[in-house]
Amino acid sequence: MSNNDIDPRHLETLDRDLGRLSTLEQATGYVSRPLIGLGAGLLFVVFAAIVAAVLFGGADHSLVVIIAAAFGAYMALNIGANDVANNMGPAVGANALTMGGAIVIAVVFESAGALIAGGDVVSTIAKGIIAPESMGTSGSFVTAMMAALLASALWVNLATWIGAPVSTTHSVVGGVMGAGITAAGFAAVSWGKMGAIAASWVISPLLGGVIAAAFLWFIKSNIIYREDKIASARRWVPVLVGIMGGAFATYLSVKGVKKIVKIDFSDALLIGLASAILIWLVMIPVIRKQSEGLENRNKSLKKLFGIPLIVSAALLSFAHGANDVANAVGPLAAIVQATETGDFTHAFGIPTWVMVIGALGISFGLFLFGPKLIKMVGNQITKLNPMRAYCVALSAAITVIVASWLGLPVSSTHIAVGGVFGVGFFREWDAARRMRAAKAVVGNPEIAPEERRRRKLVRRSHFMTIIAAWVITVPAAALLSAGIYMAINGVVGAGF
Q1: Cβ neighbours for 395, distance < 8 A, ≥ 6 positions apart
Q2: Residue 216 in contact with residue 431, Cβ under 8 Å?
Q3: N or C: which end of the chain has fewer CB within 10 A?
Q4: 3-state secondary structure of 225
Q5: Who's near 12: CB < 8 A, 6+ residues apart?
Q6: Is the pLDDT of residue 147 over 90?
Q7: Are 179 and 389 in contact (CB under 8 A)?
Q8: Nearest C-alpha neighbor of 275 from the set 311, 310, 243, 234
């Protein structure tokens, strides 16, 4: 039969069938992407368990450590998906960093912060939330830490899935508290410490928001609103980068090298000051060269804030690695200590392999599951450009560094997201102020309330969702941990 004998209706049917197959292939590819991420995450969890098996395969209670290592890896993945995504969101949302660039920075600086400046000796688990001696036996203590680790990971996983940035440190705190109460009663909890952590729900975002708004006010007053914007940027951008470099140098001197040489805070301040001056001098010709040929308009300023924003993102990653990762893998370290020595009441260190799991896990978590939260923080709360994102990142970095040195129980997530809110609310206030000034000059008519609401620069729905997630993190993780603790006891008896 020749082609001329083919019924055209059959060709139409064939075209429709091919179209359905093409659509099916696209749909299959779309559906399989989450499965690829889940599969890669599962492989990392298995890898962590194998590492623990190699290290502790011949020891007593090796199965406990292997299971705990898998839970720790799962928690580390969730840190990357939630916490690190919050930290990187402003830079990626402002298009100063690609997703690949953010991942590289997170891998290098989060790992450096965790391995160089993290891993301090911890006297009690989760910064004194429960008294270990109240747990009675090492078996009960290990069971409680297992429950806390799994519960906090599950809660952060759920929060990431619904698109709510939460504090992984507070999740661990809630998990430890819930398991501790179930195991030893309410008297086991340090309620004074819990009160300080509850206060940090307010202190962290407010502090981050105020500092971010202050930096944005400084940039607007001294650069954006100036007649010659480029000349003002040449003067002040090197200063801003110097401030950031000085803060980084001070923090590194206080925490990062103390395992090699002890440096007191006054000397660290001098080191930071010297570093700030040096970086300021180095950045003067760099910014001058970058600004050559730029038009005198706000859009041109974005180019000049590219390097400061990238450096501030790196600084924030380092601070997060040093300040938060050790807290999140603390229960795993406590389990290792208790199973190796039977001692769970004295100080314990964070083993290097545990910190490596944390450092690698956050990198994989960011790569596999981070884009959802990055979009939320970077684009959906308020509109960010490189200047605004720089203020957020610098605010978060400086606040975390100062809080870490002072021992304040603040959350890097709350600070970073609070900085985004601070920038957005400052822009609303500044826009309203300028509108009132313009009205006073030219006699503009009053703006209707509906139009005022439409001009809001911060999405109130996201604001309320995030605040609610922050408030319920500790009690939700505590309840989940209590349930897991009872389930484990029901399976294995009186503890591991």
Answers
A1: 208, 209, 211, 212, 215, 415, 419, 422
A2: no
A3: N
A4: coil
A5: none
A6: yes
A7: no
A8: 243
220: nearest Cα among 488, 429, 15, 397: 429
Q: Are 315 and 244 in contact (CB under 8 A)?
A: yes
Q: 119 with 326: CB under 8 angstroms?
A: yes
The residues, any chain, with a CB within 8 Å of residue 102's CB and separated by 6 or more, are 88, 91, 92, 313, 366, 374
Instruction: Dump pLDDT digits (tens) for 267-280.
Output: 888 998 999 999 99
- For 161-208, the DSSP string reads HHT----HHHHHHHHHHHHHHHHH-GGGB-HHHHHHHHHHHHHHHHHH
> C-alpha distances in angstroms, 30 versus 23, 24, 34, 127, 364?
11, 10, 8, 43, 20
Nearest to 332 by CA among 355, 313, 298: 355
Amino acid (1-letter code) at residue 126: A
C-alpha 337/C-alpha 284 separation (Å) is 50
Only one residue has tokens 């195991």, namely 183
Q: Which two tokens stand for residue 418?
A: 């609070």
**pTM (predicted TM-score):** 0.80
Residue pLDDT, tens place only, 195-232: 877 777 788 888 889 999 999 999 999 998 888 989 99
Residue with tokens 């989450």: 34
CA 395-401-402 angle, to 5 degrees, is 90
For residue 134, the one-letter residue type is S
- The amino acid occupying position 106 is A
Say how far apart CA 140 and CA 491 lie, in whole Å: 13
Helix, strand, or coil (residue 130): strand
Q: Which amino acid is at 80?
A: G
**265 Cβ neighbours under 8 A, 6+ residues apart:** 254, 405
